[in-house]
Specification:
- There is one protein chain.
- With about 290 residues, the protein is mainly alpha-helical.
- The chain has one domain.
- It has 12 helices and no strands.
- Helix 6 packs antiparallel against helix 7.
- The longest helix is centred in the last third of the chain and has 55 residues.
- The radius of gyration is 27 Å and the shape is elongated.
- The chain starts with a helix and ends with a helix.
Amino acid sequence: MIVFAGILIVFAAVIGGFLIESGSLAALAQPAELLIIVGSALGAMMTANPFPHLARTARSIGKVFQTPVYTKDRYLTTLAMLYKVFHFARRHTSGALEDAVEEPRTSVLFTGYAKPDPEELDFICDTLRMSSFGSVSPTNLGSMIETDLEIRRTAAHGPVSSLEALADSLPGFGIVAAVLGVILSMGAMRDDPSKIGMRIASALIGTFTGILLAYGLVSPIAARIEKIEEAESAYYEMLGAGLAAFVKGAPAAIAVECARRAIPSEVRPDFEATEAACRTTGQTAQAAA
């Protein structure tokens, strides 16, 4: 909701100030200028990025207008889930663990929790599968986890880079639209001076539109996406910290505490809440067993 409010404030402030100065909204309505600027910018973006990259950017833009996902409650639920998984792994054979994570979407280890993201399940279960093999050292597993996290961080920054490039290009395309308008104005020099003035004013709308879209819309959205992607990266780093501690032989409670310490402070559950959630999870698992 705050995103919509921010965008509304930007455009209300700009247009409101224009109206206070006795400007006319009709003068700002220049569909041809908008077509030149937005169409050219989107075309350039499509030229610069492959389709998978564009699809990820579109999904990232959609996240801007959604409720934040990685809240304190989400982290607490995930820590409890990790405790259940680690507790199971410590009390059963590697073969039993491998069977339990073979079909994670229907596994008893992940029931009773908010539906995890498929990528999240794959990240957890792939690591546990490698751990159950017994032939991969904890050091190598830790390196695999870190490599996976680094690739995720790099991929997450892709939409931000694309939108920042788009924001940088919009003022330039605004100048293109303005130059085209000036060309039309120069070709009509024999017309009435008032008409020529209107043509020049319309041409300048192109520069105005490009700058406003760049710094009032696209650039703030890119900054918002960067924060969203940073939150997602922090979530996976939390998972990685817990899994790395587990594969090195830490007890379930210690591995979960390692994961908790990796959570950003503003959304980190406190020790007592985490301990209570893990205790409840452990009692439920024992009752089910």
